[in-house]
Amino acid sequence: MIDYTGTKCPVCGQPFLKGDDIVVCPECGTPYHRACYQKAGSCIFSEKHGTGEVWQAPHVEAPNPDQEAADNICPHCGNHNPHSSLFCSQCGYPLSGGPEQHANSSYQQGRYRPDDAPGPQQGQDPYGGSPFGWGGSYPPPYGQGQPPQGGQQIPTMFDPMGGVNPADTLDGVPAGDLARLVQNNTPYYMPVFLNYKRFRRGRFNFCAFLFSGGWMLYRKMYKLGGILTGVLLLLYLANTIITVNYSIPITREIFSQIGIDILRVTPDYYQMLQAAQILSSYSAGDIFLVAVPMIASLIQFGIQIFCGIQGNKLYCTHCIRKAKKIQAQTSGQEDYHNHLQSEGGVNMAVTICLLICYMLLNWLPRFL
To answer: Where is the RanBP2-type domain (predicted)?
Structure first.
């Protein structure tokens, strides 16, 4: 377990003291005061995420023995310091006098190092308890709390709430209860929920954009997910049938008048203009049939954009309503939490069924 005492918070610049409420960024391991993290809204070093850099406590090389004897050992971290040092050059711990005498002393600031350097560990639960039934501390990263051979340590243990206090309420529901419903990927969803409810700031959800109704069914939003999935399915079937039986034959007929086999040759700009002129002489019904693939694609893209923009908001509202409904139907806190745990999470069975249906639909044009 890393003791951050003496390290400065990168937001307020004040050193962490014993007993401070500290959370760490799940991406890079930077420690913050909880209030500072919530004020910033996210890690202030987010531009470094994904670059292979992690936060590392300051490292000071051992002093040159030719200059001064390094015989003043810090009782807190074991670092060797010059004999005349008043404070540890590694952690800032006072080397003379009582700790209260030097409570406001200056400390060194943490810095970033490449991820091949040993990183800090965070074994202490910043909330004093976990909505996931872990008790008062995180599980040790190596089963027994021992690092692998060679002394290499993993970066900090992630915060399952993404910096959100489980006691914070969203429309009267504690964030910890919502985490019991979400279960999967809570470090992403809990800050998103909090920002939406408190500041009306949304965040684009790329999973919802790519999978639309399927993502909603996966997240157990069955009503809206079923409607959108049904709409997309009908759209796909209608588009496939019309395209195979009408759009392609009409298009081939038009380009055959120009002397082009559209299935073998890609027309150039002028040939496309000629085809458009020929198409203008057809009936309105034939023109609509030729335009069906483009219309269907635009509708599908519009649904995907809607899900990407509104997905997190819809999911937040869904979780809050579900938590209130479960609370009204249960008696006692334990029964309430058990129901949240059993009815939350994701539905993998629906996901597998959708994947199978998708593969079958890909074969549909071969039989039309």
So the answer is: 70-94
User: Distance (Å, rounded) from C-alpha 107 to C-alpha 14?
Assistant: 9
Q: For residues 344 and 182, is the Cβ–Cβ distance under 8 A? A: yes
Closest C-alpha among 5, 217, 222 to residue 110 = 5
Cα(31)–Cα(122) distance, integer angstroms? 10
Interaxial angle between packed helices 284-329 and 222-242, expressed in degrees from 0 to 180 and rounded to the nearest 10: 160
- Dihedral (CA of 216, 218, 223, 228) sign: positive
For residue 5, what are the CA distances in angstroms to 42, 226, 364?
22, 51, 64
Place of tokens 């496939």: 240
Q: Do 221 and 314 form a contact (C-beta atoms < 8 A)?
A: yes
pTM for this prediction: 0.56
Q: Which helix (H) or strand (E) segment is 186 a member of?
A: helix 186-199
From the list 211, 236, 237, 238, the residue with the least C-alpha distance to 225 is: 211
How far does the chain reach from its first CA to its final CA, in angstroms?
A: 63
Rounded to whole angstroms, the maximal C-alpha distance in the chain is: 98
pLDDT per residue over 9-31, tens digit each?
888 888 888 888 888 888 888 88
Distance of alpha carbon 176 from the chain centroid: 17
Q: Per residue in 52-103, pLDDT tens?
A: 777 777 654 444 444 444 457 777 667 777 766 666 766 666 676 444 444 4
Going by C-alpha positions, the residue among 140, 205, 191 that lies closest to residue 26 is 191
Q: For the CA atoms of 20, 23, 28, 29, what is the dihedral angle to 10 degrees?
A: 50
Are residues 61 and 123 in contact, defined by beta-carbon separation less than 8 angstroms? Answer: no
Whether 62 contacts 70, CB under 8 Å: yes
Instruction: Give the contacts of 243 (CB within 8 A, at least 6 positions apart).
Output: 292, 293
Token pair 């994701």 in the structure block, residue:
346
Which SS3 state, helix, strand or coil, does residue 32 take?
strand
